[in-house]
Fold this sequence. Notes:
The complex is a heterodimer of chains A (115) and B (116). Chain A has no helices and 12 strands. Chain A has strands spanning 3-5, 10-14, 19-21, 24-26, 32-39, 46-52, 60-61, 64-69, 74-79, 88-96, 104-105, 109-114. In chain A, strand 10 and strand 11 form a beta hairpin. With 116 residues, chain B is an all-beta fold. In chain B, strand 7 (65-71) and strand 8 (74-79) form a beta hairpin. Chain B contains no helices and 11 strands. The A-B interface holds A 31, 33, 35, 37, 42-47, 50, 52, 91, 95, 100-103, 105, 107-108 and B 31, 33, 42-43, 45, 48, 50, 55-56, 89, 91, 93, 95, 100-110, 112.
Amino acid sequence: AQKITQTQPGMFVQEKEAVTLDCTYDTSDPSYGLFWYKQPSSGEMIFLIYQGSYDQQNATEGRYSLNFQKARKSANLVISASQLGDSAMYFCAMRGTYNTDKLIFGTGTRLQVFP
Amino acid sequence: DAGVIQSPRHEVTEMGQEVTLRCKPISGHDYLFWYRQTMMRGLELLIYFNNNVPIDDSGMPEDRFSAKMPNASFSTLKIQPSEPRDSAVYFCASSQWTSGGENIQYFGAGTRLSVL
């Protein structure tokens, strides 16, 4: 069975600093996709970044990058130059080959950025 | 381009009443998903459709829940009769099949349901 684990219920970071949010996954599927979503206090779910399991390079989207370590089954989100507006819940999710349409979500990490 | 549109944004109802949540997916998307989010259980997939056909409803909690997608631009999630434990945020998401496999799901703003 597929599983996503986010072990950090909460993280603090100072403005302009970088922060890493951890995500580990478990799957026996030969190919899969990994996603990060942001949920601010307003409640909407915002797609941030995607990494395919066969992608040779780590995904980057602006200040977001995904530190993908396949052997360790980890897909950590790195946010560089944190901003106050980055304060939110962050969810890691996975989709596997045999359930290509369904996303499995982790429990989330609440990030607080302070001045 | 408009995103996924959900209505209403907030719904307060009394136990036993019928509740209907609505969703308009992104134009051109062929997948539609209904999720429920609670503090206790996190984000749960309830049901999803492909080309208006329900594919997997294994997450629907019980017969009180039903979902329909009569056409490519509209879906409903109905709870009848509603119970206090149905109180949650309900999200609709849509995605488009891509050859690269991303199939990124884009979420609506959610409907916050309170059943008194």
